[in-house]
């Protein structure tokens, strides 16, 4: 898959760090430190713009090290970049931790994974087929 990229940041084009890596790290393209207080949200620019092929999406995901060590995550869990979006990639971070967290220029703030998807064709019906599970959800199977 070829993804066209425009890099307007001060940092290198993101790349895969190992042969088995599924995601690329995104860098904070900021001019000065940003302090993220507990439970505060912030939108951090990356300075990159993508042209993702149709049939694929970019998924912005939290970095596990930042989540474990500092409680830094993404407000929306996983951010979706649609194939027809051409704006700057930005990351919505939240500090779930108890301490202030400082984001420095060039810090690796999130990772980006490309995923193939299919579009559904909906067929309206009067009722759905039965299954053993049925309407059970939200813990219905017990412990």
TrEMBL record:
Residues reported to bind substrate: 63-65, 76, 80-82
One example of a Gene Ontology biological process annotation: dUMP biosynthetic process
UniProt keywords, alphabetically: Hydrolase, Magnesium, Metal-binding, Nucleotide metabolism
This protein's record includes keyword Nucleotidyltransferase: no
Reaction(s) catalysed (UniProt annotation): dUTP + H2O = dUMP + diphosphate + H(+)
Known EC number: 3.6.1.23
Cofactor: Mg(2+)
InterPro entries associated with the record: dUTPase (IPR008181), dUTPase-like (IPR029054), dUTPase-like_sf (IPR036157), dUTPase_trimeric (IPR033704)
Gene Ontology molecular function: any one: dUTP diphosphatase activity
Pathway where this protein functions: Pyrimidine metabolism; dUMP biosynthesis; dUMP from dCTP (dUTP route): step 2/2
Limits of the dUTPase-like domain: 10-142
Family statement: Belongs to the dUTPase family.
Role: This enzyme is involved in nucleotide metabolism: it produces dUMP, the immediate precursor of thymidine nucleotides and it decreases the intracellular concentration of dUTP so that uracil cannot be incorporated into DNA.
Protein name: Deoxyuridine 5'-triphosphate nucleotidohydrolase
Organism: Caloranaerobacter azorensis DSM 13643
Gene encoding the protein: dut
């Amino acid at each position: 898959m070829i993804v066209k990229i425009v890099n307007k940041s001060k940092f290198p084009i993101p790349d895969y760090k190992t042969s088995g890596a599924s995601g690329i790290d995104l860098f904070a393209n900021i001019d000065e430190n940003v302090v993220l207080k507990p439970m505060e949200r912030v939108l951090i620019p990356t300075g990159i713009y993508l042209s993702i092929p149709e049939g694929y999406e970019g998924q912005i995901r939290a970095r596990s090290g930042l989540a474990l060590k500092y409680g830094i995550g993404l407000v929306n869990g996983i951010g979706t970049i649609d194939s027809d979006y051409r704006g700057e990639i930005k990351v919505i971070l939240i500090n779930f931790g108890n301490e202030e967290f400082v984001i420095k220029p060039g810090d690796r703030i999130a990772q980006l994974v490309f995923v193939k998807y299919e579009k559904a064709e909906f067929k309206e019906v009067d009722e759905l087929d039965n299954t053993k599970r049925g309407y059970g959800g939200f813990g219905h199977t017990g412990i």
